[in-house]
Specification:
Layout: H1 3-23, H2 30-50, H3 57-77, H4 83-107, H5 115-147
């Protein structure tokens, strides 16, 4: 598969993901939103498999099997009343994935960018890692609040009660 076709596939998948989020915002369009998301993910996976950057299909297959097993187990075990907690904790994994992708792009030496292109690339990495980290931590806090493990009460911190001031 040519590099242009892979890029076009990723753009199409991105558009489908945006349409998926738009469809999931209302109950009457949520089924269509799910179909858009499934189609986008299918296109993204096929483009990744047939792209030129895959060095080990075994690692890709193992990652797909692990992710599928975790998703299947969660879908079978979680009750409908626990769905908000499940969505929150899974959303934290999306944020973590954004952080890891940004870190991998930062560590990648293959891109020989200079000047403005390098600056734009580094800004994109910074924004992706920042948004991913905020998403991850915020979703973990949301999960904790939904489960009742974190209270919504403010904490008062008295400097005289800490170990450093004794």
């Amino acid at each position: 598969m040519s590099h242009g076709l892979v890029t076009m596939s990723y753009i199409a998948a991105s558009v489908l993901f945006i349409l998926s989020l738009s469809g999931l915002s209302r109950q009457d369009t949520s089924r269509q939103g799910n179909y858009f998301g499934m189609a986008g993910m299918t296109i993204a996976i096929v483009a990744t498999i047939f792209g030129h950057n895959v060095h080990s299909y075994a690692i890709l297959l193992v990652a797909l099997l692990i992710g599928g097993a975790i998703g299947s187990r969660a879908a079978a075990k979680v009750e409908m009343t626990q769905m908000p907690e499940l969505v929150a904790i899974m959303h934290s994994l999306v944020g973590l994935a954004a952080v890891l992708v940004g870190y991998a792009n930062f560590m990648d030496d293959a891109a020989m960018l200079t000047g403005v292109e390098k600056t734009i690339h580094e800004v994109e990495i910074y924004i992706g890692v920042f948004i991913g980290a905020v998403t991850c931590s915020g979703s973990v806090i949301a999960w904790g609040k939904l489960c009742g493990k974190i209270t919504g009460k403010p904490m008062n911190i008295n400097p005289q009660d800490t170990c450093c001031y004794r």
